[in-house]
Structure to design on (872 residues):
């Protein structure tokens, strides 16, 4: 209904503009309706109107973009996306757990390995049972690219009320970052080919563009950027799409709130995952990647990423927790071990430690080579509980 | 690359910038040819070779025809013309109709119990082949007819055939209209930009707002026509009646507007066909570049209306039948073309009766109204085989409508009435009136342009999400 009425109205406006103009049409045999078309002289090429129309077009577009920022907020058009629903779920969870003096609030962000591997509710229960007053906000999303993870944290932060912010300031807010070889080496991973959230373009929010450019310039040189040109084209059009609010009314119309989306979503074992033998306890070091230069070069940008994530919480983050999850692939194993050695001052829970891998050797505990099944997630979460208990003091009484 | 795709949104400004920054005409044309190749390769680069073959053979044929005509060898030039046409028709027949003939041959042989094997070879249909081979034929014929009497360069021929705005779905531009525009550097003033943007904005409104919003409803019903009631089938048929108009006219307007941004003028392809009060008038308003092409390059060479009533009827039917087959290799298009041809012949026969008023201006309001109703009903019903996937589906839709079938137990589907009625009514009545009565300009082009930019941005707001290809790309 909206589309039909608004579209027809616009059609009439455009037709009226044409009526007032000197528009001409060409017939099939080449004759025009107005003689002036044919009488045009080279002098007409100097028509200063051409410059003016470009300037006017540019001005109108800029005014539109500025106006859209205030009157057409993107958040209204993307209310039905998984990231918006997950943020709403987490806000609900925060409100359900009453504030306690000296409480920890642990915000866990990450990709599908975290979504399937870290049971936030179980983690919270176990830590509370151990006398650690904690609220776990599981903000990881399967398939989410880095900018989507940023958007997810922004969605969460933007939904916080002033009393929520007061609570965060009074608590020990810990931001938990997933460390993952595949993701950490590529700021554009899953950007254009995201199987889980194919229509979620909310993260290509023009406000996030400087952040993305910062990540890319920290990660790629010019030659590498040229090689990623098809993705850059996609990114440019997605940002343009959101900046100009293309399809805004359609998205807004269909953005009814669906069922909220939990951050921990275990998956059953994949049928084609049939490993021979048990999970190896360790792998030989990779001579190329373990070289001193490779990892630092490709993960230099992650510092900027983690800083961007942290800045969303306006200085309320007290400390950070880094965690990785185990996997069947050697490069992830090697990367986690390198990360552990390269960042000795960071609180890092290495999921590829022999002790954890030993407990997760059975293939039935896995969904696929990179993701834990539910039973595997239980074990991993138990280990994470033990790790945190060792680092966070319990509250007396 | 679709006009309504994000990649085109980037492609066009880049090509425009390159084109306008280059000062020489040759360089500009070269930029356009390269851009057109890139545009075509975005679908399937493998068919660039075929496009190149069509360009080179057309160039060779037109040069030879000119050379032979210059030497007075009229018969030899006619032979070259027929060879040139034959080559293009062979290309078209092979790529477009091979699968159709193969399927029908297998069915026929199976009927005689000779074979029931699966098809041996399947040929991929190159996008836009029907359009660029027709451009090639046009150039050869226009050269032979003396309408193109200068030695056109290979670059000009390449640009005429492969110019990206009209490459994949027309409009089919006459060589005599397009080639003279290539002779000199194109000039663009503010008014050109206004006209271009107006066409582009209207085209996008038609395509991404109206057509793409109607399409899901039509697709759903036509996917399983036997499952739906007569009222829904009629609504879906009317939906397609609107959809195809907005889709193809939208494409044509965007093509015309984009060409105008480069300074090239393409002819109008539609002139409010749903206001037509006779079938003849409808075909002078619908897909004008094709219908006039068929008239000038097929109907008139067949004898047109010069050889008596019977042959005129025959020529009409043959022309429309071939027009139907041109649309696609399917019995549905054969039926669509034959139906239009036969009904056009009947209408022409009716108009030839003594005392019949053929000029619309002299007809009474009642005659115009009844003529409009009959014409549009015929057009509406003829769209059924055009849209349906199979002959059986066509019959299911037609029988469902005429028996006013009622179906129990099917979940109700709401008919998007506002979308089906409002845009087509306003376009055919009000927009047509506004366009037909131009007034003294009130706005300076640049301010009108600014308002159009605003309209274009507003169109973006209500644009349908997701890409949907243009219907005529399949032809």
């Amino acid at each position: 209904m909206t589309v039909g009425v608004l579209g027809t109205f616009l059609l009439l406006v455009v037709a009226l503009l044409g009526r007032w103009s000197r528009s001409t049409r060409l017939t099939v045999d080449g004759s025009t309706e107005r003689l002036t078309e044919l009488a045009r002289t080279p002098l007409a090429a100097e028509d200063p109107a051409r410059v003016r129309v470009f300037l006017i077009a540019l001005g109108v577009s800029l005014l539109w973009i500025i106006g859209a920022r205030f009157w057409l907020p993107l958040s209204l058009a993307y209310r039905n996306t998984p990231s918006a629903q997950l943020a709403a779920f987490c806000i609900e969870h925060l409100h359900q757990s009453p504030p306690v003096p000296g409480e920890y609030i642990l915000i866990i962000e990450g990709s599908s390995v975290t979504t399937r591997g870290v049971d936030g509710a179980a983690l919270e229960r176990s830590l509370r049972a151990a006398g650690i007053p904690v609220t776990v906000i599981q903000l990881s999303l399967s398939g989410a690219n880095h900018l989507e993870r940023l958007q997810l944290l922004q969605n969460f932060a933007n939904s916080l009320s002033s009393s929520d912010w007061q609570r965060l300031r009074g608590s020990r807010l810990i931001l938990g970052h997933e460390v993952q070889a595949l993701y950490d080496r590529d700021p554009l991973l899953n950007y254009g080919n995201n199987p889980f959230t194919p229509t979620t373009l909310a993260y290509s929010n023009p406000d996030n563009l400087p952040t993305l450019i910062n990540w890319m310039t920290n990660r790629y040189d010019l030659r590498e950027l040229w090689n990623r040109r098809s993705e850059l084209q996609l990114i440019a059009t997605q940002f343009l799409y959101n900046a100009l609010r293309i399809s805004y009314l359609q998205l807004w119309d269909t953005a009814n709130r669906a069922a909220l989306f939990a951050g921990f979503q275990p998956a059953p074992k994949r049928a084609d995952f049939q490993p021979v033998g048990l999970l190896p306890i360790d792998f030989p070091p990779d001579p190329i990647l373990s070289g001193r230069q490779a990892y630092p070069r490709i993960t230099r940008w992650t510092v900027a990423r983690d800083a961007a994530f942290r800045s969303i919480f306006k200085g309320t983050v007290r400390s950070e927790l880094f965690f990785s999850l185990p996997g069947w692939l050697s490069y992830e194993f090697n990367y986690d071990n390198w990360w552990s050695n390269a960042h000795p001052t960071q609180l890092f829970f290495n999921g590829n430690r022999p002790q954890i891998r030993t407990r997760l050797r059975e293939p039935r505990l896995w969904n696929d080579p990179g993701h834990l099944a539910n039973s595997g997630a239980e074990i991993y979460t138990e280990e994470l509980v033990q790790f945190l208990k060792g680092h966070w003091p319990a509250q007396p009484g | 690359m679709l006009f309504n795709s994000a990649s085109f949104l980037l492609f066009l400004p880049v090509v425009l910038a390159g084109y306008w920054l280059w000062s020489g005409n040759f360089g500009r044309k070269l930029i356009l040819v390269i851009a057109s190749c890139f545009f075509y390769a975005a679908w399937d680069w493998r068919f660039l070779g075929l496009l190149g073959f069509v360009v080179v053979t057309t160039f060779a044929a037109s040069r030879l025809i000119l050379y032979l005509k210059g030497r007075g060898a009229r018969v030899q030039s006619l032979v070259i013309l027929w060879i040139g046409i034959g080559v293009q028709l062979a290309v078209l027949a092979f790529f477009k109709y091979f699968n159709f003939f193969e399927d029908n041959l297998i069915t026929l042989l199976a009927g005689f119990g000779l074979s029931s094997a699966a098809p041996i070879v399947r040929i991929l249909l190159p996008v836009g082949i029907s359009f660029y081979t027709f451009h090639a034929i046009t150039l050869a014929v226009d050269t032979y007819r003396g309408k193109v009497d200068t030695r056109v360069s290979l670059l000009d021929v390449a640009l005429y055939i492969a110019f990206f705005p009209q490459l994949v779905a027309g409009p089919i531009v006459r060589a005599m209209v397009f080639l003279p525009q290539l002779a000199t550097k194109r000039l663009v003033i503010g008014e050109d930009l206004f006209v271009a943007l107006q066409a582009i904005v209207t085209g996008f409104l038609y395509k991404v707002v109206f057509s793409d919003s109607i399409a899901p409803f039509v697709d759903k019903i036509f996917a399983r026509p036997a499952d739906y009631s007569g009222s829904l089938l009629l609504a879906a048929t009317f939906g397609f009646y609107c959809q195809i108009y907005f889709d193809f006219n939208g494409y044509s307007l965007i093509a015309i507007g984009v060409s105008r941004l480069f300074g090239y003028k393409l002819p109008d392809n539609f002139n409010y066909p749903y206001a037509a009060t006779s079938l003849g008038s409808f075909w002078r308003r619908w897909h004008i570049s094709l219908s006039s092409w068929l008239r000038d390059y097929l109907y008139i060479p067949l004898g047109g209306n010069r050889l008596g009533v019977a042959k005129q009827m025959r020529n009409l039917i043959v022309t429309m039948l071939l027009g139907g087959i041109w649309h696609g290799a399917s019995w549905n298009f054969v039926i669509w073309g034959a139906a239009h041809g036969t009904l056009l012949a009947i209408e022409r026969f009716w108009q030839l009766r003594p005392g019949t008023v053929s000029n619309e201006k002299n007809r009474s309001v009642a005659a115009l109204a009844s003529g409009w109703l009959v014409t549009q009903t015929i057009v509406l019903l003829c769209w059924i085989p055009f849209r349906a996937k199979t002959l059986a589906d066509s019959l299911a839709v037609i029988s469902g409508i005429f028996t006013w079938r009622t179906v129990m137990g099917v979940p109700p589907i709401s008919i998007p009435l506002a979308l089906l009625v409002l845009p087509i009514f306003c376009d055919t009545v009000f927009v047509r009136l506004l366009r037909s009565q131009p007034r003294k300009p009130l706005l300076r082009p640049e301010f009108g342009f600014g308002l159009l930019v605003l309209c274009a941005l507003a169109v973006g707001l209500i644009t349908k999400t997701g890409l949907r290809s243009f219907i005529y790309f399949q032809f």
